[in-house]
């Protein structure tokens, strides 16, 4: 019983967010998606069908009275707000509707929006502080958090919902028919049982090392004459999802996206960043020194021999050489220019070597999974074949002992955190010495994240979906269509229509390219809510049929899960692409655009208040349309625009990479994006400057998203007439739209959180809210911002 187990386990021990990052990024084939928006929810569970008691009726009466009082207070606060706002800004109020919305939902929406605002700030001076100032004052940064916003708050609530599922005896009984869920419960218990993990010590890893030929640092059993590099490379990739020398995976061909094909990147899994391994600056020298001590401490804990230092130095030297011959970012992912398709025979001829036989490797990797042999004529995509040749040449110039030791080090580095407290402490000391800080998290949080993000998202999503519809599985698929596929699809279609109208008005695009762009937008697929297989017991359990989980064998449980996940992906070899597949689960806190499928995905968890109202189809004004379009509408516009950013624009309506732009239009597009890149490069945050090149695709999507959503909202008004204004706010609905957009990015940071935000592919939150509206004349019009004011610069940048 979970409640009993929790009392027995030491759930108070602390780990770092680095542990989660390490555990979640073991797979060298990570999904490439255009956007991850951190949004999640905890749905309401349970139902009440009994009659009210007299006491409860009295309570209802009190609640009605309080709601009425709340409406009155909202009006009063609104009056005070409007009075203050008029004295501090140039807001021009437009009476877009002659009557206010006074429903309970409108009152609460008004109060919620009002709580975010700081009326002492002029929105034309700093819209972020105006739209988020009140929220920031009321939401200090929680302990051990680097950033806090609405998304992280909803993520916490979602994690709590998952904990309640995993602790509930009733849920375990209710879903006992699902073997996938039962395996998940066993895994969760094993993850929490640190007492059992510590008691087992290093034996699980010692046994694993023997399977891969042993390690000279910890044993004398290694035999060079029997060691087979290709055999162990294939085993590591197939069973452990490791790519110690290069990355190989099976996936859709970017230039023929209906076909799955073998693909290889000359990128190895490194223990330090490429910069730290190769730089002769203080940054690099210190990093390598700390790294050496880390390996020494880790191998000592595993029983390393006293004379292991020379081998460790050889490992690091080999890793440095490997890093130097790997492509550097952004060249490493410049698929447009690095893409090359060869036969296996040609690959062996060009990038093979005395030690590396590609046909032998691919056969050993794929035959056990697919039962199919790899022929000489089988096609393979390589992203940077010259770099791959450099790696195979390095193998020929390196002793077997060094290669074997390096490969085993990469194995150890990927699994040692499964061994217990001593090894977690080694990582903590390494991280503090290297980076100067350590962010602790609880063991329970680690286990929940692994369940949710990596291993058991599907069965957890099933329970999540059931909870949305009171467990009525017979009607779930139909209701998914009505609530998500209906209302949310209607909203997504509005955004697409607005985007198509915008394209027709562009003066920098020729007519042929416009026509193709419109076709791509029209053919863009929307996956909304959840895939049907989530509510199919048989299909759900089929995903986990090869997984073995025991409550006392945490180490082996993760080995079994890693192998099952990896082999499932490799099994796509020789099969057509599954167009119905989702890269994210319904409980994911992300939305994304898939370039190879020309598809937007909006999981159920993102479609919830305050961005979306699930009662929307039956109650048009339950959530103000301005709030709806400014919230989830801007998110949908963001993802749609990713289909036309610097990466997405390379793919056509079918998801195939080809040049469908005229030369003149492409030149104009590059001028437009150059303007945006230069603009963002002048924005500062935390004393640093935004990298306008690195953040360009996301900035294009942010700017385009709010514009498409606003136009879609205006289209809705044209079809349906003005909607009632929110009570007590004294704001126009256009102003409410922009406030709703901005509050998505209201955030508070620690000093390290600010550093992280500045290094992201997304611009820091304040600029995601500000820059997009600075470039949009409709914002200045809505708030009557004077030309040349900070939020209405004379020189604006616009792509879409």
TrEMBL record:
CDD domains on file: M13
TM segment ranges: 58-82
Annotated signal sequence range: none
Pfam families according to UniProt: Peptidase_M13 (PF01431), Peptidase_M13_N (PF05649)
Cofactor (UniProt): Zn(2+)
Keyword Hydrolase attached: yes
Location of the Peptidase M13 C-terminal domain: 590-799
Alphabetized PROSITE patterns for the sequence: NEPRILYSIN (PS51885)
Listed GO CC annotations: plasma membrane
Name of the protein this chain belongs to: Endothelin-converting enzyme 1
Organism: Pocillopora damicornis
């Amino acid at each position: 019983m979970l409640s009993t187990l929790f009392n027995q386990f030491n759930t108070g021990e602390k780990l770092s967010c680095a542990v989660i990052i390490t555990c979640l990024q073991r797979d060298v084939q990570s999904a490439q998606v255009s956007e991850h928006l951190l949004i999640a929810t905890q749905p309401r569970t349970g139902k009440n069908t009994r009659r009210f008691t007299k006491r409860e009726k009295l309570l209802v009466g009190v609640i009605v009275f309080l709601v009425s009082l709340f409406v009155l207070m909202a009006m009063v606060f609104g009056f005070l707000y409007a009075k203050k706002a008029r004295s501090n800004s140039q807001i021009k109020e437009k009476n877009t509707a002659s009557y206010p919305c006074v429903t309970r939902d409108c009152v609460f929406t008004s109060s919620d929006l009002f709580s975010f605002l700081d009326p002492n700030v002029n929105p034309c001076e700093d819209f972020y502080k105006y739209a988020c100032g009140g929220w920031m004052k009321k939401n200090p940064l929680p302990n051990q958090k680097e950033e806090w916003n609405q998304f992280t708050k909803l993520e916490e609530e979602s994690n709590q919902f998952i904990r309640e599922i995993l602790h509930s005896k009733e849920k375990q009984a209710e879903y006992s028919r699902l073997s996938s869920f039962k395996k998940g419960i066993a895994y969760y218990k094993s993850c929490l049982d640190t007492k059992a993990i510590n008691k087992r010590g290093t034996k699980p890893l010692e046994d694993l090392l023997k399977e891969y030929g042993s390690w000279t640092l910890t044993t004398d059993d290694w035999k060079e004459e029997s060691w087979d590099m290709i055999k162990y490379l294939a085993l590591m990739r197939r069973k452990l999802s490791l790519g110690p020398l290069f990355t190989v995976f099976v996936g859709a061909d970017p230039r023929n996206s209906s076909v799955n094909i073998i693909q290889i990147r000359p990128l190895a899994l490194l223990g330090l960043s490429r910069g730290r391994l190769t730089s002769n600056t203080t940054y690099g020298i210190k990093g390598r020194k700390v790294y050496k001590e880390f390996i020494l401490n880790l191998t000592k804990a595993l029983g390393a021999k006293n004379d292991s230092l020379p081998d460790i130095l050889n490992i690091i030297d080999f890793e440095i050489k490997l890093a130097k011959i790997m492509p550097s970012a952004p060249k490493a992912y410049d698929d447009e220019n690095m893409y090359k398709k060869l036969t296996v025979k040609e690959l062996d001829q060009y990038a093979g070597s005395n030690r590396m036989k590609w046909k032998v490797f691919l056969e050993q990797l794929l035959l056990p999974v697919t039962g199919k042999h790899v022929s000489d004529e089988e096609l393979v995509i390589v992203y940077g074949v010259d770099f791959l040749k450099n790696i195979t040449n390095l193998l020929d110039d390196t002793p077997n002992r060094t290669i074997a030791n390096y490969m085993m080090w990469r194995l150890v580095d990927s699994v040692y955190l499964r061994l217990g407290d001593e090894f977690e402490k080694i990582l903590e000391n390494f991280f503090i010495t290297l980076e100067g800080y350590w962010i602790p998290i609880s063991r329970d949080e680690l286990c929940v994240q692994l369940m949710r993000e990596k291993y058991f998202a599907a069965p957890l999503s099933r329970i999540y979906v059931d909870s949305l519809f009171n467990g009525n599985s017979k009607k779930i698929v139909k209701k998914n269509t009505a609530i998500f596929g209906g209302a949310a699809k209607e909203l997504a279609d509005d955004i697409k229509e607005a985007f198509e109208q915008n394209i027709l008005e562009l003066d920098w695009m020729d007519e042929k390219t416009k026509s193709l762009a419109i076709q791509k937008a029209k053919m863009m697929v929307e996956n909304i809510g959840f895939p049907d297989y989530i509510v199919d017991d048989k299909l759900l359990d089929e995903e986990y049929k090869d997984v073995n989980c025991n409550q006392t064998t945490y180490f082996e449980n993760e080995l079994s899960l890693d192998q099952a996940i990896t082999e499932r992906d490799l099994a796509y070899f020789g099969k057509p692409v599954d167009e119905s597949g989702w890269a994210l689960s319904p409980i994911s806190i992300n939305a994304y655009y898939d370039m190879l499928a020309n598809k937007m995905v909006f999981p159920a968890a993102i479609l919830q208040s305050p961005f979306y109202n699930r009662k929307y189809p039956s109650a048009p004004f339950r959530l103000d349309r301005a709030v709806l379009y400014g919230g989830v509408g801007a998110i949908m516009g963001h993802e749609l625009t990713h289909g036309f950013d610097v990466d997405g624009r390379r793919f056509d309506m079918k998801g195939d990479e080809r040049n469908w732009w005229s030369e003149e239009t492409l030149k104009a597009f590059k001028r437009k994006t150059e303007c945006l890149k230069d603009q963002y490069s002048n924005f500062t945050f935390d004393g640093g400057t935004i990298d306008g090149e690195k953040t360009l695709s996301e900035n294009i999507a942010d700017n385009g998203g709010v514009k498409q959503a606003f136009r879609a909202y205006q289209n809705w008004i044209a079809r349906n007439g003005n909607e009632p204004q929110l009570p007590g706010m004294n704001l126009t609905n256009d102003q409410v739209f922009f406030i709703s957009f901005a509050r998505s990015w209201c955030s508070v940071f620690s000093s390290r959180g600010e550093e992280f935000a500045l290094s992201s592919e997304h611009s820091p939150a304040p600029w995601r809210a500000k820059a997009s509206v600075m470039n949009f004349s409709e914002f200045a019009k809505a708030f009557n911002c004077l030309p040349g004011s900070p939020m209405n610069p004379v020189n604006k940048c616009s792509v879409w």
